[in-house]
Design a protein that fits this description.
The complex is a heterodimer of chains A (607) and B (345).
Chain A (H helix, E strand, L loop, with lengths): L1 H23 L6 E5 L4 H13 L6 E4 L5 H4 L1 E3 L1 H7 L4 E3 L1 H4 L3 E5 L7 H13 L1 E6 L2 E6 L2 E7 L10 H6 L2 E4 L15 H10 L7 H13 L6 H16 L7 H12 L22 H4 L7 H9 L5 H11 L5 H7 L5 H4 L7 E4 L4 E7 L7 E2 L1 H8 L3 H9 L19 E8 L2 E8 L9 H18 L2 E8 L2 E9 L2 H9 L9 H17 L3 E8 L13 H18 L2 E6 L6 H10 L2 E4 L5 H12 L3 H5 L2
Parallel strand pairs in A: 1-8, 1-9, 2-5, 5-8, 14-15, 14-17, 17-18, 18-19
Antiparallel strand pairs in A: 3-4, 6-7, 10-13, 11-13, 12-13, 15-16
Helix pairs in contact in A: 1-2, 1-8, 1-10, 8-10, 9-10, 9-14, 10-11, 11-14, 19-20, 19-24, 21-22, 22-23
Chain B lengths: L13 H12 L6 E5 L5 H11 L3 E4 L16 H9 L8 E4 L3 E3 L6 H5 E3 L1 H7 L4 E3 L1 H4 L4 E5 L6 H13 L1 E6 L2 E6 L3 E6 L8 H6 L2 E5 L5 H16 L1 H7 L1 H18 L6 H14 L5 H17 L6 H12 L13 H13 L2
Parallel strand pairs in B: 1-10, 1-11, 4-7, 7-10
Antiparallel strand pairs in B: 2-3, 5-6, 8-9
Helix pairs in contact in B: 1-11, 1-13, 9-10, 11-13, 12-13, 12-15, 13-14, 14-15
The chains are: A alpha/beta (607), B alpha/beta (345).
Chain lengths: 607, 345
C-alpha cells in the first residue's frame, strides 16, 4: 500500500515535470499524450499547465468530430453575405498559433482528423484550400491529447502519439498523490528565455539513439524529441548546456514510456563494439572541439549508460507481462477485427464530409454547405434574371440552383460476425466438445449484448457442415449446438475452405467476419473425401494460405491436450493468432476469444 | 518554413530519392508513391524537391504557366491570345519555380479543380474562373501526404485528370478546360489504410521506406535534423553545394534523356521480367523501360543496360503484382527473387 502510493507520487512528480517542460517549449516538444479520465487529477494537471504558460498564450479546446470548416477555416457564410465580399473564417488551429490546443477524447480521433493535425504540426502552417479560399497562415502550437481510453487498444492515433514528446498516464493518480508542485511559473518563464541558447554535446544525440534502439523504439522522432526535452530540462534547471541529469530526465520521460522491449544485458549483445567506443567512430566532421571535450569529462560513467538506465527505469510495469503474452508487438495487426470495419453509408452513422451532389433518396441535403456554394453566385444570377439593370430596392430572394446542392456523407461502423469453426472429429473433439459448446454459448450471450452475430460451422468425417448461419438468436444457436455430433476423421481443408467461404459471404453483406477455429491441426481426410494424412495436411496448409490472402481475422485455438506443432504451423500459414489451450475450460476459451476479437471482454470477465 | 530541409542532406532512403529524381528527369513516368514507416522523411523529401528542381520558363501573362517552347500544348487562353494577335512569337517568357503543390487533406473540390472567382463574383457580379490546385501544379508536382486518407471523390477526380492531362470544369455557366500535366506524388502509412487499386496502378513508381535500424545512420539523421532546426539558414547554406550538384545532374539528365538508347535486348529483358512476375498489363513494362532510361540519363550512360533495369525494377513493379495466395512473401522479395533468377546473382 505504502509502496504503491510512493510509486504514484513519483508518477505525479514526473507528470508535473513534464507539464513544466512542455510549458517551456510547447512547439518544440510538440505535445503531451495525457491518459486519464476526466476528473480531479486531470483537472489539477491541466490547471498546473495553464498556470505555467504565459497568460496571453492562446489555449484552445478542440472537440471530437470537429468539422473541417472550423478546424482549418473556410468561408464565413454570414459575414460574406453581409459584407458582399468573401470573408474567411480563421480556423481553430490558426487561432491557436503560438499556443496550445487540447484535443478532447483523443482516443476516438479518426485517422483523417489526425492527418490534418500532423500536416499542420509538420509544416507549422495551415494550408487552407476550401470554399474558394486559398490561404496559408502560420499555426505553430503544442498539443495535449486528452486520452480517455480504458482498454489497451483505445489510444490516440499513433501518428499523433509518435510526435508528442510526453506520454503520461494519470489513471491511477488519486488526489492525495497529487502533492508535488514542481517548478514555479516564474522559473518556467525564465527557462523559456534561456532555451534558445542551451547547447547540447554531440554525444547526446548518439546516446539517445542508442538507448532508443536497445529499447526497441523504431521511430526516429523519439530520440529527436528526447534531445529537445533535454534542452528544455537544462533551461529549466538554469543551465546553459545539457548535463547528464537533464539527459537522464529526458530519457525517462520520452524514451521510457515508448519502450517495446527490455534491453538485452550488455554481455549478451554481441552486435557491435562496447558503447564507450562508439562516439569517436562517427562523430560528424564538423563537431566542435569543445563539445567532444565536454562529453569526455565524465568518462567514468558513459552517457549512453546514464540515458539507457534512466529510460529503463520508466518502462511501463506491464510491458514485461505483455511481452510474455506476445501481445505487445502484434497488437496492431490484430486490431482489425475488433470494432468492425467502417464503411460509407447513405444516411446513418457519423458524418465524414460533404460533397456536391443532388439530395436523392437516402442522401441528406446539407443546407449550410448548399448556401455557401450558392452565396457567391447571387449577384450574377440576379443580374442574369433581371437583365443588365439591377435595382437595389428589389426584394431579395436567395437563388439556389441544382449545381449548389451539397449532401452530407456518413460513415457507419459495421457489426462483427464471429464464425466458429469446430473440429468435431474423433481425434480432437470428443472430450473437448462440451467445453467448446459452453464457450460458444458464453460468447453468444456476449454477442447478444453487442448486437453482433454468430455462425457455427463444424467439420468431421467427410466434410464441413454449416450448423448455424449468422444469427443473433440465442435460442436457435443453443439448439443447434446441443445437437452437434462428434467423431470421425478430420477434413481440415474442407473446414477452412468452408470458413473462408462463409467469411467472404459475411463481408459481402457489409459485416466484419472474425473466424475462430478450434482444432488440433491434425488433418487426415483429403478434400476428395479419401483418407491420407500427408495429402490432407498439404491441402490444409494450402487452404490456410488462401485464407490468409483473403485477409480475414482468424484466431486458432489449439484444443489438443498438448500444444501441437501442426496447429502452430497452420496458424502461422493463416496469419492467425495462435492460442494453445491445453487445459482450458469453456470460460477460458471465451476469455481468450474475447480478448482477441472484442473490447467487451471485460463484461464477461467481470462476471 | 521558409527554408526547406535540403534534399541532399537526407540520410539514406536512396530508393525514395532516386525515384523522385527519375520523376524529375522524366515527368511522364506517372508519379511516385512513397509508403512506409512514420518519421522517415517522406514529406521532407518531397518538400525538399521543390527547392532542388531547376527553374522553368513560362509564357508571360499565362496563369496556367504554359511552356513557351511547347505551343501545341497551350491553354485556351494563350491560344486565344495568339489568334487575336496579342501574343506573338518570339513569345515573352519569364523564369519560374517548378511548382510543388501540396494538396491538403481538408481541401474542398472547388479549390482542387478551380471554381468561380469569389472576390469578383461577390463584389462585381462578374463570372470568372479562379484556377485551382490542379492548375497550379501544371508542369510540376502535386503532392498528397496521407494519400490513403484522401476522400474518395477527390481521388476519382485526380485519377481522371492525371490520366488525361487536362482539367475540365463544367458548372453552371462555367465551362473551362486547361492543361494539367503534373507528377502525382503520394505518401502514406499503410497502417492507416490501403490504397485503392485503381489509384495504386496510376502511380508509375512505388517506394517502400523503412526506418533505418542501424545506429550510425540513426544518429546521423537525428543530428542533421537537430542542426537544421537550430540554424536553418546555416544548414541550408552548408548543403547548397551538394544540392547544386544534384540540380545539375537533373538538368543534364533531362537533356540527355532523348538520346539514351534502349536496345531491343533491354526491352526483351523487361518483358521477361514482367512475364516472370505476372504483372498486369503493359503499364509495368512501359514504366520499367522509361525509369531505366531516365536512370541511364541521370548516370550519364548512353545505353540502357541490365544494371539500370535491375536498379529500378523493384520501384517500377512492386505495386503491380497480383496477390498470390500460395506465396506469402512481400512483393519486394518477389521482385528481388525474379531479378536474381533472370539476371543472375
Amino acid at each position: 500500500m505504502n509502496a504503491g502510493t510512493q510509486a504514484e507520487t513519483s508518477l505525479w512528480s514526473d507528470a508535473v515535470l513534464a507539464a513544466a517542460l512542455f510549458a517551456v517549449d510547447p512547439v518544440g516538444t510538440v505535445g503531451v499524450s495525457l491518459r486519464a479520465l476526466a476528473g480531479p487529477a486531470r483537472d489539477a494537471w491541466l490547471a498546473m499547465l495553464r498556470e505555467r504558460l504565459p497568460p496571453a498564450m492562446p489555449v484552445r479546446r478542440i472537440p471530437l468530430n470537429i468539422a473541417d470548416g472550423r478546424l482549418l477555416g473556410g468561408l464565413d457564410l454570414a459575414a460574406t453575405l453581409e459584407a458582399g465580399r468573401p470573408v474567411a473564417d480563421r480556423g481553430l488551429l490558426v487561432e491557436a498559433d503560438g499556443g496550445v490546443i487540447l484535443l478532447a477524447m483523443a482516443e476516438r480521433l479518426t485517422p483523417a482528423t489526425a492527418a490534418r493535425l500532423t500536416a499542420v504540426l509538420d509544416t507549422g502552417e495551415v494550408a487552407l484550400q476550401r470554399d474558394g479560399i486559398a490561404l496559408t497562415s502560420p499555426a505553430q502550437f503544442g498539443v495535449v491529447l486528452l486520452d480517455e481510453g480504458m482498454a489497451d487498444d483505445e489510444r490516440p492515433p499513433a501518428a499523433l502519439r509518435d510526435r508528442a514528446a510526453f506520454q503520461l498516464d494519470l489513471t491511477r493518480i488519486a488526489m492525495r498523490d497529487a502533492v508535488a508542485t514542481g517548478p514555479t511559473p516564474a522559473t518556467v518563464a525564465a527557462a523559456r528565455i534561456r532555451l534558445p541558447n542551451v547547447s547540447a554535446s554531440a554525444a547526446l544525440a548518439e546516446a539517445f539513439c542508442s538507448a532508443a534502439l536497445s529499447l526497441g523504439i523504431a521511430s526516429l522522432r523519439a530520440p529527436l524529441l528526447a534531445l529537445r526535452v533535454a534542452r528544455a530540462a537544462a533551461a529549466l534547471a538554469g543551465r546553459d548546456s545539457v548535463s547528464d541529469e537533464d539527459a537522464a530526465l529526458a530519457a525517462r520521460l520520452v524514451l521510457g514510456p515508448r519502450a517495446t522491449q527490455i534491453p538485452a544485458p550488455p554481455q549478451e549483445s554481441d552486435a557491435g563494439e562496447p558503447p564507450e567506443k562508439k562516439p569517436s567512430d562517427y562523430a560528424p566532421p564538423d563537431a566542435t572541439g569543445e563539445s567532444s571535450e565536454e562529453s569526455s569529462v565524465d568518462a567514468e560513467r558513459p552517457l549512453d549508460d546514464v540515458v539507457l538506465e534512466a529510460a529503463q527505469a520508466a518502462i511501463p510495469a506491464d510491458l514485461l507481462a505483455q511481452l510474455r503474452l506476445g501481445t505487445g508487438g502484434a497488437a496492431g495487426a490484430q486490431q482489425s477485427g475488433r470494432a468492425g470495419v467502417s464503411r460509407q453509408t447513405a444516411v446513418r452513422g457519423r458524418p465524414v464530409g460533404v460533397r456536391r451532389g443532388l439530395p436523392q433518396a437516402g442522401v441528406r441535403l446539407n443546407v449550410i454547405e448548399t448556401l455557401r456554394a450558392a452565396a457567391p453566385w447571387q449577384r450574377i444570377r440576379r443580374g442574369a434574371r433581371l437583365g443588365a439593370s439591377m435595382p437595389d430596392g428589389m426584394p431579395r430572394r436567395l437563388e439556389v440552383r441544382g449545381d449548389d446542392f451539397h449532401v452530407t456523407r456518413f460513415k457507419q461502423r459495421t457489426g462483427t460476425t464471429t464464425i466458429f469453426v469446430v473440429d468435431a472429429s474423433g481425434s480432437s473433439a470428443l472430450h473437448r466438445l462440451a467445453e467448446v459448446k459452453g464457450a460458444v454459448e458464453l460468447l453468444l450471450a456476449d454477442c447478444y449484448v453487442r448486437r453482433d452475430s454468430v455462425a457455427l460451422l463444424s467439420f468431421r468425417g467427410r466434410g464441413a457442415e454449416l450448423l448455424l448461419p449468422p444469427t443473433r438468436s440465442l435460442v436457435r444457436a443453443k439448439r443447434s449446438l446441443a445437437g452437434l455430433p462428434g467423431g470421425g476423421g478430420t477434413p481440415l481443408a474442407a473446414g477452412i475452405d468452408a470458413a473462408a467461404g462463409l467469411a467472404d459471404a459475411v463481408s459481402r453483406r457489409g459485416q466484419t467476419p472474425v473466424v475462430v477455429l478450434l482444432t488440433d491441426g491434425r488433418a487426415n481426410i483429403a478434400a476428395d473425401g479419401t483418407g491420407g494424412r500427408a495429402q490432407a495436411e498439404a491441402e490444409a496448409l494450402a487452404a490456410a494460405r488462401s485464407m490468409r490472402a483473403a485477409g480475414f481475422t482468424v484466431l486458432l485455438v489449439d484444443t489438443s491436450p498438448r500444444p501441437q506443432e501442426a496447429a502452430r504451423q497452420l496458424a502461422a500459414e493463416m496469419g492467425a493468432s495462435y492460442l494453445p489451450l491445453p487445459h482450458a475450460g469453456s470460460a477460458a476459451i471465451t476469455g481468450a476469444v474475447l480478448a482477441s476479437t472484442g473490447p467487451v471482454a471485460r463484461v464477461t470477465r467481470a462476471q | 518554413m521558409s527554408e526547406p530541409f535540403p534534399f541532399s542532406a537526407i540520410v539514406g532512403q536512396d530508393e525514395m530519392k532516386l525515384a523522385l529524381l527519375i520523376a524529375a528527369v522524366d515527368p511522364t513516368i506517372g508519379g511516385v508513391l512513397v509508403f512506409g514507416d512514420r518519421g522517415t522523411g517522406k514529406s521532407t523529401a518531397v518538400r525538399a524537391l521543390a527547392a532542388l528542381l531547376p527553374p522553368m520558363r513560362v509564357v508571360v501573362g499565362c496563369r496556367y504557366g504554359c511552356d513557351p517552347a511547347a505551343g501545341g500544348k497551350w491553354c485556351e487562353e494563350c491560344r486565344a491570345r495568339v489568334a487575336a494577335g496579342t501574343l506573338k512569337a518570339p513569345f515573352k517568357s519569364r523564369q519560374a519555380h517548378v511548382p510543388v503543390v501540396d494538396l491538403p487533406l481538408g481541401a474542398t473540390e472547388d479549390r482542387v479543380v478551380g471554381a468561380l472567382d469569389l472576390e469578383r463574383a461577390l463584389t462585381q457580379g462578374v463570372k470568372a474562373f479562379e484556377p485551382g490546385l490542379l492548375a497550379r501544379a501544371h508542369r510540376g508536382f502535386l503532392y498528397i501526404d496521407e494519400v490513403n486518407l484522401l476522400e474518395d471523390h477527390l481521388v476519382d477526380l485526380l485519377l481522371d485528370v492525371a490520366a488525361s492531362g487536362e482539367n475540365v470544369v463544367e458548372r453552371e455557366g462555367l465551362s473551362v478546360r486547361h492543361p494539367a500535366r503534373f507528377v502525382l506524388v503520394g505518401s502514406g502509412n499503410p497502417e492507416e489504410g490501403e490504397l485503392r487499386p485503381q489509384l495504386l496502378d496510376r502511380f508509375g513508381l512505388s517506394v517502400e521506406v523503412k526506418t533505418p535500424m542501424d545506429l550510425p545512420t540513426r544518429v546521423e539523421v537525428v543530428r542533421r535534423r537537430d542542426d537544421y532546426e537550430h540554424d536553418p539558414e546555416g544548414f541550408v547554406l552548408k548543403w547548397k553545394k551538394d544540392d547544386g550538384k544534384l540540380r545539375r545532374k537533373i538538368e543534364t539528365g533531362r537533356v540527355r534523356l532523348a538520346s539514351v538508347k534502349v536496345p531491343d535486348t533491354a526491352i526483351l529483358r523487361a518483358a521477361e521480367l514482367c512475364l516472370a512476375l505476372g504483372t498486369d498489363g503493359l503499364r509495368g513494362e512501359l514504366t520499367l523501360i522509361r525509369a531505366a532510361r531516365a536512370l541511364a540519363a541521370l548516370d550519364g550512360d548512353a545505353v540502357v543496360g541490365d544494371k539500370h533495369l535491375r536498379q529500378v525494377a523493384p520501384t517500377a513493379l512492386r505495386h503491380r503484382l497480383r496477390r498470390n495466395p500460395l506465396d506469402d512473401s512481400g512483393s519486394s522479395t518477389r521482385v528481388e527473387r525474379a531479378l536474381r533468377e533472370l539476371f543472375g546473382a
